[in-house]
Amino acid sequence: MYNKILVLGAAGQIGRILTKDLLEQTDSDLVLFGRNITDRLSIQNDRVELVNGDFSDEKTLEKAIQDVDLVFVNAMNRAQDIQVIAKVLESKPGIKMLGASMAGLHDDVPKALEEFAQQNLPSSYIEGEKESAQIIEDSNIDYTLLHLTWLYDDPSNTSYELVPTPEILKDAQVTREAVGQAVIDIITDEDQNKYKRKGFGVGEPNTHYDKPSFY
Ligand code: NAP
Predict the structure, then answer these.
(1) For residue 188, is it within any domain?
(2) pTM for the complete prediction?
(3) Fewest CB atoms less than 10 Å from the CB: which of 2, 45, 55, 177?
(4) Digitized pLDDT (tens) for each residue of the chain, 215 residues in all
């Protein structure tokens, strides 16, 4: 079990859902990190500390990471940012990292979903995701990368499956709420070795469509 968790990008959509889940389902203390976070989050809780900062701000990151044993990274599309995060994490061995990455970076989604991503996302975004994942995979960090398929919101649906990368992830969609639950399930699993330095596709079972149903 992790005692103190740093959420990078905590004002983001998954960041907010995960924060709620962590407060409700674990005893961990939280450091919530993000741009202007003190203006954007109004959480009053003894277990929570708010830190204003950008991922590129190495000094602020170094300070925020003190005493933390797990870091959740809620955006992995800018390699410059991930380089800084990786540098700080590599200087503090023993900290676990979980990252919100995207599916399809390892030729691991069906052709139709790959084409849908290419048609609907800027190539610079996909390249940034690829480069960022590579930086983490090439590091000596104890990482778990969650390669998320297309996201939507439905608080009543936390159904998900983990598909070890690079097995094909056929699922076309998953809720952010299910991703939050997947993170909770992973970090509270007694067998942490299952996730060490591995990637997992994350999708909603039985959504083997050519594109997400909400597009
Ligand atoms: P989100 O709402 O955009 O949250 C990402 C958060 O990361 C934002 O709050 C953003 O800050 C923060 N962030 C990014 N760069 C930062 C930096 N340099 N310094 C500080 N904070 C930074 O995204 P989400 O819906 O929670 O999804 C989580 C991740 O999954 C996203 O990064 C997305 O790329 C990825 N993903 C999305 C999909 C999809 O279908 N949408 C599919 C696969 C993967 P600001 O709020 O200040 O901008």
Answers:
(1) yes
(2) 0.98
(3) 45
(4) 899 999 999 999 999 999 999 999 999 999 999 999 999 999 999 999 999 999 999 999 999 999 999 999 999 999 999 999 999 999 999 999 999 999 999 999 999 999 999 999 999 999 999 999 999 999 999 999 999 999 999 999 999 999 999 999 999 999 999 999 999 999 999 999 999 999 999 999 999 999 999 99
The overall longest dimension of the chain from CA atoms, in Å, is 48
Half-sphere exposure of 102 (CA within 13 A, CB side): 23
Cα(175) to centroid of ligand 1, in Å? Answer: 15
Which CATH number characterizes residue 56's domain?
Answer: 3.40.50.720
Query: What whole-number distance in Å separates Cα of residue 59 and Cα of residue 135?
Result: 20
Does residue 166 have a cis peptide bond before it, meaning omega lies within 30 degrees of 0? yes
Task: Kindly state the DSSP code that residue 183 receives in the 8-state scheme.
Answer: H
Q: Which atom of ligand 1 is nearest to the CA of 125?
A: 34
Is there a contact between 98 and 71 (Cβ–Cβ < 8 Å)? yes
Domain span at residue 167?
Answer: 4-203
State both tokens at 174: 């998953």
* Ligand 1 atom nearest residue 36's Cα: 47
Mutation choice for ligand 1 from 39, 82, 151, CB with most ligand atoms inside 8 A: 151
